[in-house]
Design a protein that fits this description.
heterodimer, A: mainly alpha, 3-stranded antiparallel β-sheet, two-stranded parallel sheet, 3% strand, elongated, B: mainly alpha, Helix Hairpins, 0% strand
Chain lengths: 821, 100
């Protein structure tokens, strides 16, 4: 990819603002390329390197990070010069008929954010991994896959057209399979890897179909071309655009773990912790959210987001469902990584909800802040398992009471948890509150209620997880770590052997949950890998307290954690409406692809009306958006002046007021925190609190028990997929196929066989024996006889040969003379 | 008229050559007869070329034929010499190993 062969695509740039320029901006394509090359370097030379190839991976990610920082600096400079047009450079990858497929870069606010984020987090995670997977048998391959994983995400983020986007998307799919199944010796891990791969593949069909539909609608695969055309209403059929948006959203559902296809994400915890943290923070799962944000005009116009009077749309509803159900599921997990996994699913639901209601900036900013605090939480979980709990992730069996010994991990966890819960002044507050606030402001009332309740649930389940992990009595591995004798009477784990016995034998067993029967019944056992003790030797033998327990994990683990914790605290101030900071919004707003409905009523009305009439002529389908839709004012109801700007413009972010943030959002969050704290203390800590009467409710109350089981079985979605859908689809098909096979195909085959045999017999007797053999024999005999007849001519005498020759020539000559007359 | 004479001469030479090839038993004589045939052909070439009005073409052809004939005779005489060394005879009647 030489510089000379690259050409600047001026397409679309004219109508946008002036294109930014600068070395980093024009060479952003190097950012994914460096890790891509490093992947091959690690594969080929990694084993011979002194550190098993990890140095190549870290060096390549650091180089990408340096480029990404330079890129971000130049982008900020360009934006302040009002030159925030996307920098698009492409080279032709291949041509097929009239279609030219290009590869290259599109640098704008959105991609700059993601490029920086991915490079930054990948660098930290790789440093962390050198310690975490130290001594692993596939150390080199781990780093190779990790590097390619980041390269895939970077390729996707910087993609100027759909083909490159799909390329990066699929690279990530492959690498997630490789990394989740890194310890494939255990059946559960390789099954989790397969599940992740196949579930995402289900969604990927949507990506291919959606891309093909976009090509059919707009005749181009260029992302900016698609966005411009969609935003300008240059398409024939609105219905077709809607279906394209739906198809693309199916891909996002698969990739970003949204509601019906979220089941792969918690299982993906089977991979090493650095993989989980990378997968759940900046790469892979945000790919779906990124796709929606990247092609926002397509979704916004296609799904009529922000049209006056709209209460629900596909993206927002799926996001709302996802954020609630995942939050509920996080309550019944024992595995700390699974709590975090469901928390990720829930936060992705927030991002989708934000995009679905037109809060583009809030959603993208939530990607940004979420990456830091979620990555931090995962790395802390890994730090605990690495140092304190003998490679176990089971909060109930092997953790508790360790906060004094691991100050860095503990305080990082607390900061990240506060950020996740949306505690004011932490980063998550600014991003999540903007989404929630927007939902209210844009009159998506139902969704707003759901998102506020979701925030309260987040606080509650994180409180439970925090209590189980850090406080209370040390148990199992943590007890060894803390140097206290392992006291089983305080243990908060459940017996997994026999559900009925467990209930009868352990009346004293305090439990939020009733997981016992679940473990017994779990059909496939994917989720039972509560530990991944593959790395290296345990720190202590079981049953003996550690005499020289280290205080915290080594620096390679704590330094990345601490950096991420600082960012979890501080990154929110890039866009803190509470303090009038709209910096992040300002940097990225050119990437939305749609106009802001700026200013008062007049301006918004003007643009929308104009747009509506203009496009009205072009639309073939009946199209619900009336030109006068913008005049729909909610003033009489909500008491605030808001006009839905319709699908061709996004509404302005709401004005922040502390009053709106505190009630009901923060009050509910506080309530969730208090209830959860009380329950945790009374259930896990055996303390008397106001909520103590609720302990054991799941056993006493049939309904509560059923609800709990329902949650523990993950809404029976896995059973639905594997037991019902796969069975319902596969079994009749298999049966029908068997019948068809036996009756039809076998019948045909038998008939053909018998017919063939008869025909063969006939042919053998008549044709083969008589005709063919006869002909062959005859020709043989004829040749033999003629040979015998001609034998005397071969006298061996040269004179005779000469005479024959001349005689023949003479005859030929005479013939010629006669014939020629 | 003139060309006819040439052609008649060539035909006579050709016939003598053919007779020699078939009837002679001495291998050297057979080779000499082949030379007669070739020279008959050479005469024909020159005669026809003169009739067509471009005598040089035929003469060049003839020169080529003479050159090729010299090579052919060289090979032929070498073979005859080898046969003589092996069998102390160059009589073609005795050479019938190629009998089928």
């Amino acid at each position: 990819m030489s510089l000379g062969s690259m050409l600047l695509a001026a397409e679309g740039a004219t109508e946008h603002a002036a294109v930014a320029s600068g070395w980093f901006l024009e060479n952003a394509w190097l950012i994914p390329l460096i890790p891509g090359i490093a992947f091959f370097a690690i594969l080929f030379f990694g084993k011979k390197m002194p550190r098993g190839g990890s140095e190549i991976g870290i060096a390549s990610m650091a180089a990408s990070l340096v480029l990404a920082i330079g890129l971000a600096v130049q982008w900020v400079g360009a934006v302040s010069d009002h030159a925030d047009g996307a920098v698009i450079r492409t080279v032709t990858w291949w041509e097929s008929g009239p279609f030219v497929f290009t590869i290259g870069q599109q640098v704008d606010g959105l991609s700059v954010v993601l490029l920086f984020l991915v490079a930054f987090i990948s660098t930290l995670v790789q440093i962390y991994s050198t310690e975490y997977v130290y001594g692993d048998s596939r150390y080199t391959h781990f780093f190779a896959a990790l590097t390619l994983f980041s390269a895939g995400m970077l390729t996707m983020v910087v993609a100027p057209d759909m083909v490159q986007l799909i390329l990066g998307w699929e690279i990530m799919g492959l690498c997630s399979f490789l990394l989740i199944g890194h310890w494939w010796e255990e059946q559960a891990n390789s099954e989790a890897a397969l599940k992740a791969f196949f579930t995402v593949r289900v969604g990927d069909i949507g990506l291919l179909v959606g891309t093909a539909m976009l090509l059919a609608i707009f005749g181009t695969l260029s992302i900016q071309g698609i966005n411009d055309a969609a935003a300008a209403g240059e398409f024939d059929s609105h219905r077709m655009l809607m279906w394209a948006a739906v198809a693309l959203f199916v891909a996002c559902i698969g990739k970003s773990g949204q509601f019906p296809l979220h089941t792969w994400l918690p299982d993906a915890m089977a991979g090493p912790t650095p993989v989980s943290s990378l997968l759940h923070s900046s790469t892979m799962v945000v790919a779906g959210v990124f796709l929606v944000a990247r092609l926002y005009p397509v979704f916004h116009v296609g799904l009529d987001i922000n049209v006056a009077g709209q209460q629900f749309n596909l993206i927002a509803v799926i996001g709302a469902i996802t954020l609630t159900i995942a939050a509920f599921l996080a309550f019944v997990q024992d595995d700390i990584k699974k709590v975090l996994a469901y928390s990720t699913v829930s936060q992705l639901g927030y991002m989708m909800l934000g995009l679905g209601i037109g809060a583009w900036t809030g959603a993208v900013f939530h990607i940004f802040t979420h990456a830091f605090f979620k990555c931090c939480l995962f790395l802390v979980a890994g730090s605990i398992s690495h140092t304190a709990s003998h490679h176990s992730f089971d909060m109930k069996k092997d953790m508790g009471g360790i906060w004094r010994k691991m100050p860095v991990s503990f305080w990082s966890w607390m900061i990240a948890t506060f950020a996740l819960c949306g505690v004011p002044l932490f980063s998550g507050f600014f991003s999540k509150d903007e989404i929630i606030d927007s939902a209210k402001h844009y009159d998506y009332t139902t969704l707003w209620v759901v998102s506020v309740v979701g925030a309260a649930l987040t606080a509650a389940y994180m409180t439970r997880a925090t209590y189980l992990t850090w406080f209370g009595t040390p148990r199992g591995g943590a007890a060894h770590f803390m140097g206290v004798p392992h006291d089983t009477s305080h243990e908060v784990h459940e017996h997994s052997a026999h559900p009925d016995e467990a209930e009868v034998d352990d009346p004293h067993l305090p439990d939020f949950t009733e997981d016992a029967d679940v473990h017994g019944h779990d059909v496939h056992g994917h989720d039972d890998h509560s530990h991944d003790d593959h790395g290296h030797e345990d720190h202590a033998t079981h049953g003996k307290p550690l005499p020289f327990a280290p205080h915290d994990s080594p620096w390679k683990i704590t330094v990345p954690i601490a950096i991420l914790a600082i960012l979890a605290l501080g990154s929110g101030y890039l866009n803190a409406p509470a303090f009038g900071i709209h910096w992040f919004e300002h940097q990225t707003e050119s990437s939305i692809g749609l106009e802001f409905a700026h200013g008062g009523e007049g301006a918004a009305e003007g643009t929308t009306d104009e747009g509506g009439e203009e496009h009205g002529a072009a639309l073939v389908d009946e199209y619900a958006m009336a030109p006068g839709g913008a005049t729909y004012v909610m003033a009489e109801e909500g008491g605030h002046e808001y006009e839905a700007p319709g699908p061709y413009a996004v509404p302005e972010p709401p004005t922040f007021t502390w009053q709106a943030a505190i009630w009901p959002g923060m009050v509910l969050v506080l309530l969730g925190f208090l209830i959860s704290l009380g329950l945790s203390l009374s259930i896990f800590g055996n303390r008397k609190t106001v909520l103590s009467p609720l302990v054991g409710l799941t056993k006493r109350n049939r309904f509560a028990g059923a609800l709990h089981t329902f949650l523990v079985r993950k809404y029976y979605l896995d059973d639905l997929y594997e037991g019902v859908i796969v069975r319902a689809v596969a079994h009749p098909i298999a049966k029908a196929a068997y019948w068809f096979n036996q009756k039809v195909i076998d019948g045909i085959v038998n008939a053909v066989g018998k017919g063939g045999k008869r025909a063969g017999d006939f042919v053998y007797e008549n044709i083969d024996q008589r005709v063919v053999d006869g002909a062959v024999n005859f020709s043989g005999t004829a040749a033999s006889e003629s040979g015998h007849a001609l034998q005397p001519i071969q006298s061996g005498k040269v004179s005779q040969y000469g005479a024959l020759l001349f005689g023949a020539a003479a005859v030929g000559g005479i013939l010629l003379i006669i014939l020629n007359g | 008229m003139l060309a006819q004479n040439f052609l008649l001469l060539a035909a006579a030479l050709f016939s003598i050559g053919v007779y020699g090839v078939i009837a002679r038993k001495n291998a050297v004589m057979v080779l000499m007869s082949i030379e007669l045939i070739l020279n008959a052909v050479n005469l024909n070439l020159i005669a026809f070329a003169m009739m067509n009005g471009s005598p040089l073409d035929g003469q060049v052809f003839a020169l080529f034929v003479i050159a090729v004939a010299a090579a052919e005779v060289g090979v032929g005489l070498a073979m005859v010499l080898m046969i003589y060394r092996n069998r102390r005879s160059i009589s073609l009647d005795e050479l019938s190993e190629m009998k089928g």
